[in-house]
Known about the structure:
The chain is α/β, with parallel strands linked by helices. The chain has a domain at about 25-70 and about 185-250 and about 350-395: 3-Layer(bba) Sandwich (FAD/NAD(P)-binding domain). About 30% of the residues lie in helices and about 25% in strands. It is built from eleven helices and 17 strands. It has helices at about 10-15, 40-50, 70, 85-90, 95-115, 135-150, 160-165, 185-200, 305-310, 310-325, 370-385; strands at about 30-35, 55-60, 75, 125-130, 155-160, 175-180, 200-205, 210-215, 220-225, 225-235, 250-260, 275, 285, 295-300, 335-345, 350-355, 360-365. The strands form two sheets. Strands 3, 4, 5, 6, 11, 12, 13, 14 and 15 form a nine-stranded mixed beta sheet that branches. Strands 1, 2, 7, 8, 9, 10, 16 and 17 form an eight-stranded mixed beta sheet that branches. Helix 2 (about 40-50) packs parallel to helix 11, helix 4 packs across helix 5 and helix 5 packs across helix 11 (about 370-385). The chain is globular. The N and C termini lie far apart (about 45 Å).
Amino acid sequence: MKLHSGAPFWLVADGLGELGTAPVAPAPAKADVVVIGAGITGALVADALTSVGASVVVLDRRAPACGSTAASTALLTYELDIGLKDLGKRIGLEKAVRAYRVSQGAIDDLARIADSLSEGVGLARRSSVCLATQRRHSRVLEQEVVLRRQYGIDAEYWEPHKVEQTYGFPSQGALYTRIAGVVDPIRLTRALLDRAVGRGAVLLGRTPALEVRVDATQPAVITDRGTIRASWVVYAMGYELPPPLRKGLVALHSTYALVTEPLDDLGPWRGDCIVWETARPYAYMRATGDRRVMIGGADVPFKDAAARDRLMPARSRLLERKVQQWLPDLETETAFVWAGTFGESPDGLPYIGPWAGCPQALFALGYGANGITFGAVAARIIVDLCSGRPSPDAELFRLDRSS
Length: 403
């Protein structure tokens, strides 16, 4: 019997239903940095800041990791929603190449972070296969591979027979890269926050930022546990746009996901790679550590949470058909389904850094398909900015860029 649940799989599988928070003391009066958002991006930022000795307060209106982080399928890929060639047309090829290299380097950063933690977070290296959905897409992928290789970015073009012989997927060809991975987003977030707290950070779950006041001296973050004055406020709120940002900065989408019951055999795929496709909107698939198939996609424009969730049965059936298409020899049974919301910038890049008119406020908004990867990028840039150091990559992700 299929069990359909609105709760993201990670929370259910963890036996938690919803991550609890330990009792918290009143908010401290001062901190170097207040991070608003206790999801994966906020956790990466807090961990990086505390590693250089900053005093940090992390707060979230929910329990930690219970927003978009819990809904993530947690595929780690350097590849952006917009290919290198098309991104180059939008922002210039030099900047596009830099963005791809930064994203590629973030996969290594995440692996190093995972290795440095005392507990396992389910991070495993994988290859990535982007399947050409239509014959004409194969030529686009071939050209994309040539361009990426020209700039030293890992990519290979695979003919359809190689894709099928290696992984069993029907396709019109594929773009293959060795640089990708998977992770358990809940465990990673929790481990990072635990380490930050161990270094002196204060974690305030279920504590919304009621107001952020900025005067000539320091920002003041008002909460129901007290007011915190800080040198910097970092917004890491995901799709829940902070009030200072202009409307139209991102487009919101509803996305859907399901995970199957564990399988004895994953066929020739073996779960060795993450899978996605050239169709738009695209589906994306991975295997979990206990040999479940996890697939996401079937995106639609976001209206409100109720409308998003009403579509869950129909969108889940689309994902089930995609599993049958990609894994025709496997018999799967859906265990859990869920939905989430994400933001997308016009050029597929995150927004990281300051916003004109909001002095001492920084933003770490990893919009697009690579939220976790972008979170690692944001953490590095924000540490530089809060430390008064120039960040060579900050220009790429400016909030006021034209795209």
